[in-house]
Structures are given as structure tokens and as C-alpha cells.
Input
Amino acid sequence: MIVDIKVPSPGESVTEVTIGKILVQNGETVAIDQIICELESDKATLEVAAETEGVITLFVKEGDDIAVGSVIGNINTDADAAIKPASAMPDKSTTPAVVVNTDADEPESSYAEGHPSPAALKLMQENNIAPNAIKGSGAGGRITKQDVLLYLENQKNKQQNPVAPVPQTDTKQTPPPQTLPASNPQRSTRTDRLEKMTRLRKTISQRLVAAKNNTAMLTTFNEVDLTEVMSLRAKYKEVFEKKHGIGLGFMSFFSKACAIALQEFQAVNAYIVEDSIEYHNYVDISIAVSTPKGLVVPVVRNVQNMDLKEIELAVKDLAVKGRDGLLTMEDMTGGTFTITNGGVFGSLLSTPILNPPQSAILGMHKIQERPMVINGQIVARPMMYLALSYDHRIIDGKEAVSFLVRVKELLEDPMKLFLNL
Output
């Protein structure tokens, strides 16, 4: 029996995915629930597992864009299924619905062989490339856009690194070898690398541009003295970690302070929905997390009801899932406000960009000791610049500044976080 492998739906709004890492080879016998490949969607990476045991055949390769619901391969559950080596299986580009004849002694020729796809044809015409110059790796030998890009890259490398002709030498009169002066440095080779943009990176790019073009975004700044927060952490850090099994970081203090301030300044926690404003009586904070595939913003929900321990555990869970590529669509959906911490990378000051449809984002930065005047005395204090970027269409300057000042007050006197003052 042949069991088709279809692309599952990662979420309602996702219609297309990109084939990520393929973890099996064609002709390999897979077990039930064995991971076959990874799929990259607009927001998250998901895994495709084998539904049954048998010999697998995939019609796709890494980097292919595939519609949700498409067949990307099949599993032959017959015990006596012939196992073909991976090299015998055809490569497919973007059209998975191709029947593979594994019983024929020789592969049948295809009408698509040597013919470029529309995108490939355009690229070939722009660069004056003859069709017979490229061997297609797509379905039925079709020339794909990736084939053309690879050909152009190889041609560029050949021009930059020409093969020098071998000189004819006279064996009877061989001159003594000459060495270059030690002072001449060896020139490095200039190379370019063309790499396909991941679906996550493309989505991030589109949304960042949309945020700049579709909002009246500006940023207000303040600075916070973290002396009291650092004193609390130093005093209770070991006890906190021993009791709760999680370290006491700065993110829990900032998240709790923002949750209190967001309930007081509701426009900062709201959305613009067409001609209306959608207010929220809850605080779902998106925490910007840097992953190997790009910046993502998973959501910690109902922060207004959480204590510091619960916030720390939630943030750690999301950070680990982001690092391991295990974030789900549910983890990424929603959020009424965002916090991003460029300070972990050494940023002293920045203007964070909005995360639509949210109306505001708080930027944390590097903690640095600076001289401050306290009661007429110059003393060193651990200071951090805070930046609040906001959509001026919904948030007035007074509200934005007042919100940031409220966050500053709560952090400089953190007992207010616990007493809800």
C-alpha cells in the first residue's frame, strides 16, 4: 500500500511552507512517528512525522516552496518493496504531484526536460544564458530558478579565479626557482555567496517595512536607576533559585512593571482595528528572542496575574523552544505589547520598531555605571536607557511619556511591584 505524505496546516493564515531540513533519504525504511523533514512557515518551524512504517520516497528537496495540503512524497508499506538508492530518485522543485515509475529499467524522458520555469526563464533572458547551458534539477529535468542562480554563481567564481595555463618548459635549460619577496603579502580571494532567504526572514522583512510605512511611529526615551533592583537580586538570587529552580533575572522585573503600567495607560496596550480602537483588559507581552533563524517574538500571556517566578519560568521556556526551533503557532500568536532587550548584545541605545498590530514596544539596553548627582553628591549608579517606540495615531505623547515614567518609578522602587502601588 502507498501512503501519501501531505503538508499539514501550521495555522489558518498559512497557505505555503518551505521545505527545511530533510532528515531521511529516498529508499530508506522509516518507522512510525520518525521525523521525516522540517517545514518552515511564516512564524514557526514544524516537523513532519511518518504515519506508518515503510520505504519512503520524497518528491521535494530542501528549499522548495510547497502549498499546504500538497503531497511531498509517499511511504510504501509493502514488506517486499524494492529499496532504491537515493541517487536513483528524481529531484523535484516546486511541483510535488509527479508520479515516479520505480519499476522501469530506464527513466522516461519528460517534456519538461531542459525547459526553464517562468522565473528561471526571466533570469536567463536577463543574463543572456542559453537554455542548453544549464542542466535542470527540477521535476522532469525542468530548469529552476535555483539552477540559474547556481550557474551564475559558478560563472562568477570562474571569472574571479581563472585557471592559469601551464607553461611549456625546456628540460635542458631549467632556470633556478625564484621566490617572491617576503614583503609581498598574499592576496585574498574575493567571493560572493548567494543564499535563499528563509520564509521566516522574508516575513520579518515584510512586517518591518509595513510597520515603518503604515504607522506614525516615534520614540521617547528615559533612563532608570537599577540600584534597588540589583540590590534585591543580589540579596535573594540564591534563595530564589534554590526554592523555585529558576534564576531571578531582569526580565521579570521589567515585565511586571510594564504589566502594571499598561493597565493604567490602556492605549499603550491597545490595537487599531480599521476605524476602531481595540482595548484589552489583559496583558500579553511578546518577548523578543534571537534564534539561529532570526528574531521571533513569542508571547507570555496574562502577565498581569503572574508573579516573578512564573514570568521567569515562562520566559525561559520560550527562549529554549526558540533556540531549539520548537516554537508553535500558538506560542507566536497574539501579544498586546513587546519588550526587546538589545542590552544582552551590548546596545547602549536604540529605537525599537513596532510589532504590528501592537501600538508600542519597550527597548531595554545595556546596564552601565554612570556618574549621577544624588542629594548633591556625585555617585556611580547602574543606569539603563529605556526607549518606548509607539504609534502616535493611537497614543498621545503625554501618554507615552507618562507610561515610561511609570515604568521607571516602579523599577527604581521595586517594592511597589509586590505591593501593587
